[in-house]
Design goal:
By secondary structure, the chain is mainly α. The chain contains 19 helices and no strands. It is globular, with a radius of gyration of 22 Å. The C terminus is likely disordered.
């Protein structure tokens, strides 16, 4: 066997470890394109979101969606939202409860009516139209979190309002989705559908009571015990463990995992170790897990397979999704007496659908509510709203006078 044959044989023999090459390429590309994004005056997260589209099936086809990347990406978004909770000022969070509620309601009603109305105008039946409206209700604040961190606005009144509204949006979105699925399964007057909705509401209430009680009374004591262990990185290990457990608990009770990890971070922000925890979790998650989350969003899209006949509907749906959230969120913020510029900045922070939109789209196609073409439309909405969020926040939200928060958060 000559040298060339030996090389070819070695490459073929390592095919089972191709995921190592994929992960290395993803992390490198995220760093590079994120850096280039800042050079053109955009938040680095904007470039990082593009990496998945560039490397994925839509363009180069070097990397395809797979279970490993998807699961690591899920860990990334859980840790990102845990950090957002750690950085949230709980006093400010309570003070802005009315503003968050107002923004959440505005950001649900307008997109829902817009998505349903557009679908009906294109001739889709009522069931499909309602489901497409539900799709536009979703909010994935994880993209906004990183953008706000880069702009030094995460701890501002606007940032805290966006985070609170996003949590409420997730809860409202879950309730609306469950109501729609329940009524579709049980009929408009079906007691089973209404009963399942009531059960879900009870589960959500129980989750928040349990999460807050455990977070406030139990976690600080457990942390002190954990710190006595004769092992390295006890604070970091504890943070990762409880973030994952709270995310899992959220999923068990019918609430998104990112809400669970955010509540966990919010509770631990009251502990004396919160600053140390925040720094260590950033160092642990930003070089690897969080970049995979951003890239995975682009990987699931394959614009080559989009049906040209549905393209105009998809484009208009994406516009309705963007405008509906901006105007709905801005209206809610104005009701809470924010300035006009801050109101539109808050509305922009609610635009991204991200992984939440993908989950709703997947449920729709698995249950036969929407077709493959409409699933492609949903993917276009998710990608468009996710890509437009970072530059939109920067455009609409003033950053003068704000202090840069964490150097690590800019160039992870």
């Amino acid at each position: 066997m000559n040298i060339w044959d030996s090389i070819v044989s070695s490459v073929q023999g390592a095919s089972g470890f191709y995921f190592l090459f994929e992960l290395a390429i993803i992390v490198f590309a995220v760093k590079l394109v994120g850096h280039l994004s800042t050079k053109i005056g955009q938040p680095s997260v904007f470039g990082k979101l593009l990496v998945g589209i560039i490397l994925g099936p839509s363009l180069l086809g070097i990397i395809h969606p797979n279970e490993l990347i998807s699961e690591l990406a899920e860990v990334g978004v859980i840790l990102l939202m845990f950090l957002a909770g750690l950085e949230t000022d709980l006093k400010e969070f309570k003070k802005n409860a009315f503003a968050s509620t107002s923004v959440a309601i505005g950001g649900v009603i307008l997109p829902f009516l817009g998505g349903m109305g557009l679908s009906l105008a294109f001739g889709f039946d009522t069931t499909v139209a309602i489901y497409m409206g539900v799709l536009l209700v979703a909010t994935s604040v994880s993209i906004s979190v990183q953008t706000l961190r880069e702009l030094g606005k995460l701890k501002s009144r606007e940032g805290v309002t966006i985070l609170g509204a996003a949590v409420l949006d997730d809860v409202l979105g879950i309730i609306i989705l469950s109501a729609v699925l329940g009524l579709m399964a049980g009929g408009a007057a079906g007691a089973g559908g209404i009963g399942s909705i009531l059960i879900l509401l009870v589960k959500i209430a129980v989750f928040f009571v349990l999460a807050i009680a455990i977070g406030y009374f139990v976690l600080p004591k457990l942390l002190k015990v954990f710190q006595r262990f004769n092992v390295t990185q006890t604070v970091l290990s504890f943070a990762v463990i409880v973030a994952l457990l709270f995310a899992y608990m959220g999923e068990v009770f019918g609430v998104a995992g990112i809400v669970g990890s955010y509540v966990c971070g919010l509770m631990l922000s009251l502990t004396p170790q919160s600053e140390e925890m925040m720094h260590k979790v950033e160092t642990f998650s930003f070089p690897f897990f969080v970049p995979l989350f951003f890239v995975n969003i682009g990987l699931v899209a394959n614009f080559r397979e989009v049906n040209p006949e549905i393209l105009w509907f998809s484009i208009l749906l994406a516009l309705v999704a963007i405008v509906g959230k901006v105007l709905g969120g801005a209206f809610g913020a104005k009701v809470a007496k924010f300035s006009t510029s801050s109101s539109f900045g808050i509305g922009a922070g609610m635009v991204a659908r991200g992984e939440v939109g993908l989950i709703i789209a997947m449920i729709g196609i698995e249950r036969g509510i929407i077709t493959n073409d409409l699933f492609s439309s949903a993917i276009i909405v998710v990608i468009a709203t996710t890509l437009v969020t970072p530059p939109l926040i920067k455009l609409l939200m003033k950053t003068d006078g704000d202090k840069k928060e964490h150097k690590e958060s800019v160039g992870f």
